[in-house]
Amino acid sequence: MTEYNSTSLRDRAEPRGRTTEPRPLADHFLQWLARSVLKMFYRQVDVVGLHNLPTSGPVVVVANHTNSLVDGAMVSGFLPRIPRLIVASTIWAYKPLIPIMNMAGVIPIHRRSEIAGSAQKNRSTFAATTDLLAAGGMISVFPEGESHDEPRVKPLKSGTARLALRAHAEAPSPGVSIVPIGLSYDAKGRFRSRALMELGTPIPVASFVDRSSEAASTRALTQAIHSAMLDVTQNYENRDLARLVGRAAELWETPHPTLSDQPALVITAERRRDFVQRYNWLRAEHPKQTAAAWASFAAYDAALRKNSMRDVHIGAEASASDWRRFLMSSAGGLLLLFPVAVVGTVLNLLSFGVVKTMALRRDPDQRATWQVFPTIALAPFFWCLQGLLAGLCFGWVVGLVTLISGPAALPVTLNVSDRATRWLHDVRAWRKLSKDKALQGCLQAMRKDALQQLEDLATLVEDMPDPVQD
C-alpha cells in the first residue's frame, strides 16, 4: 500500500502468498478491531452504496489510496464481506504489523522498482488471488499502486485488470465483478475528523473479455476502472480548488442554516463532484462569470478562516437570544456527561499523548496511520498498566474497576471532547460577532454575494449539454 524505504529487504525473509482458507473467527475479530479503532479516530464514518457489493461470487474491490494503512482498515472494517488485501511486500519490513497481516490473510505484491526479480515473485501472488476469486472469494486492491497526498486519483496500474481477467478465465461463471470504492476524508490525518466510503456500480469483467487482444482487454478494463473510481471519489486540480468547491457545496446545501447545522460528508461529497464537473464547463464557456463567482467564494472563505468561524455562524443570522439559548442548551448536555469524561481523560491521556507524539512530522498520508495502528497496542497496554498499579496500591477491586473504566469511558470522553470543542468555538464566534457588528454585517454581505453568485451560475448551467453532465 504505502511506499516505504526498504533498502535491506533482500536480507529479510520474503513474504509469501497467504492462505485463502476462510477464517471466520479471525476475520470477525479483525473487522471489529478495525471498526472500533477507526470510529475512535474519526468521529463519523459513513458508508453508502453497500447494495452495490454482490453478496456472493468473486469480487475485486478497488479503492483510491490517500491515507496509507488506514485505507486498508476502512475497506476491511466496513464491508459486509471481508476481502483479502493485496499490499506492497515492503510492509513486511515493519515487524509489529506482521501478526495482524498474517491473521488477515494479506497477500503481498512486489514492486518492480523496489524488489529484484519482482515478476517471478509475483507469480505466487497472481496464483493466490486467482485461486481465491475462482473459489468465489473477494480481494481488495489499490490500483494507484501507492499511497499519496494528491487531491485526485492518480493514473492506475494495469495489474488489477490483468488479475481480474485472469481470474475470470478460471471462473467464467458466475464471473468476476469489480466494485469501485471511493474513500474521502475531510481532514484525513486529524483526530476526530470525518470519513466516508462510497461504493459504486459493479463492473462485469466478462464485458471486456472478447477484445482483439489480451492487451486491448487490459487497457479497456483499466480505463473502465479508472472512470468508475472517478465517479465515487473527489478529484481536484489543486487543494485551493478543493477547499472552495467544498465551501460552495456547503452554501448550496444549507443556504439558510441553523446554529446546530453541520452538513454531513456524505451529502456534500456528491455535490462536490457535481460542482467540479460544472465548474470545468463553466470555466470554458463563461470564464468571466465563473472567475467572479470563484473570487466571491474565495473572499468569503478567507474571511471565515481568518476569524475562525464556520458558515453557520453567519448564515443562521441568529439574534442574541438565539445564541444564548443555543449555547446554554449545548452546555447543559456537556455538564451531565462531564464527570465520566474527566475519568476517561485521566485514564486515556497518556496513551493518546504518546500516539500523537509518534505522529508528529510524519508525511500527511501517513499521519493517521501513525495514530490509528499504535493505538491498537498502546491503549490496552496503558489500561492494563494503570489497572495493575491501582490494584497494587488500593486493592484488586479498585484495580479491576480502573482497568474496565479506561475503555468503558472512552466513547463518552471522545463525544464530550467533540462537543466541548465545538461549543468553545461557538462561544468565541458569538463573542466576536456580538462585539463587532461591522464584522458581522460584512460577513453576512459576503455570504449573500456568494449565494447570489451560486444562483447565477446555476442559471448558466441550465444550458450545459447532457453529454458533459454525464
Q: In short, what is this structure?
A:
By secondary structure, the protein is α/β, with parallel strands linked by helices. It folds into two domains: 9-231, Glycerol-3-phosphate (1)-acyltransferase; 240-470, no CATH class. 59% of the residues lie in helices and 8% in strands.
How would you describe what is shown here?
- It is a single chain.
- Helix 1 (24-41) crosses helix 2 (68-78).
- Strands 1, 2, 3, 4, 5, 6, 7 and 8 form an eight-stranded mixed beta sheet that branches.
- The model is unreliable at 1-21 (pLDDT under 50).
- The chain is flat and about 70 Å long.
- By secondary structure, it is α/β, with parallel strands linked by helices.
- It starts with 23 loop residues before the first helix and ends with a helix.
- 37% of the residues are buried.
- It folds into two domains: 9-231, Glycerol-3-phosphate (1)-acyltransferase (3-Layer(aba) Sandwich); 240-470, no CATH class.
- The chain has 15 helices and eight strands.
